[in-house]
Amino acid sequence: RLLKEFEAELAVLKGRVDGLEAKVGELEATQFSTTTKLQGQATFVLGAVNAGGNSTSGRFRTSSITSGNDSENYNARFGATTFNYDVRLNFITSFTGKDQLYTRLRSGNFNNAFNGNGVNLTALDIASNGFGQTSCTGNRNCSDVVGIDRLWYRFPVGRDVAITVGPKARNTEMLAVTPSVYGKGDKILDLFTLHGAPGVYNKATGAAAGITWRQNVPKGKGRFSAGASYVAQQGDSGTSFDGNPFSCSSDEGGIGTDCARGNFLAQLNYTTPQWNISAAYRYGQAATNFRRGTNFAASNSWFLANGDSNSVAVNAYWQPKKSGFIPSISIGWGLNSLSGNETQASGVEFASPFVSESQSWFVGLEWSDVFAKGNAAGMAVGQPVFATQLKSGTTKGLETTPNDGNYVWEWWYKFQVTDNISVTPAIFYLSRPLGQQTGADQTFNVFGGLVQTTFRF
Fold this sequence. Notes:
This protein is 10% helix and 41% strand. By secondary structure, it is mainly beta. It has one domain (42-456): Beta Barrel (Porin). The chain has a 16-stranded antiparallel beta barrel. The relative contact order is 0.14. The mean pLDDT is 90.
């Protein structure tokens, strides 16, 4: 009786079910993979930099540019307006629903100030310049070459622990907690993605393994977490020693060798829904670096020769429950101690005083839903890695008090045009990026402006 009374409605439902089955069948027949999702991002960057000041170190001169001060030479080589791109294709695969195989293809054509040419602090987080000369012989900068940028596998062990292994993984992607909420709206300078401690969070990438633990607590409660990772940046090389005991060449490497360029990073955190505090430590083997700092700090302590580093970081952030006039606040500080770096790659000791200790810090403010839902604004200020202590070289009597201070600022506003498209105008200023190389009573600074457009699909 019921079937007869609802015969018309059942016929409609049957038709809808048949239609859904047909659509599901079509999706299954044409889908990319039953286990893999594709997430893509394409970014356009239009912008320029301009240097000012009166320093005369001569570091930006070439065989063709033989006169002028540093700012004039810098602008001649790096000051043109440029239009570049970066493309990332992320393949996220799961075989059990709990594990993840992550593969990223990437390409770009940055070969200018925005990927750190001239002054490393002007590098953008998004900038990619291909995959080096080893990937495309005859092409100086490898622009437009697509390559494997990441490849790792992560799986759970029990309820609280996860393990990550891969031939191309990054230490900052194996953390239990990202120790800053600055840049959630958008990321501009690479420096401010390092959480105020480039010596610890140096984005070392290579053959890696990591473990994370997150305390299992009721939703909304605070919890502890911890993580540790090892990355051998030269883990793909089979040459353990090339005959030169004073340096680690680009051919030397392996896992656990003297020239593996090993990075061990450990982190401990306490996190609540609104705030977090983190402490971290990184040991850096010979030829590893601190990623972003003054040209002086980079010139004689970022280990082309023998030398180890021990770095610590302390970070905290707070974010409001609701968006409004009050921004999220992220702070970070880092300290780096260097040892065994007295000798240059040639085997000769440094004649001039060289870096034995350095520091860094940052403060980042970010406002969400500014003027419209989805829009965001941010501002950060800090000091990238700068020398705070020097050791005497073989030439005695030279000044060992460093004069490497510098500041970096950035400001940006993100327009969320659609769910998939955002446009972010940004400006930044570097007060003294050469650090001590600027020269006594001289100045050198860099101002930059850009528009970053991001497409996500």
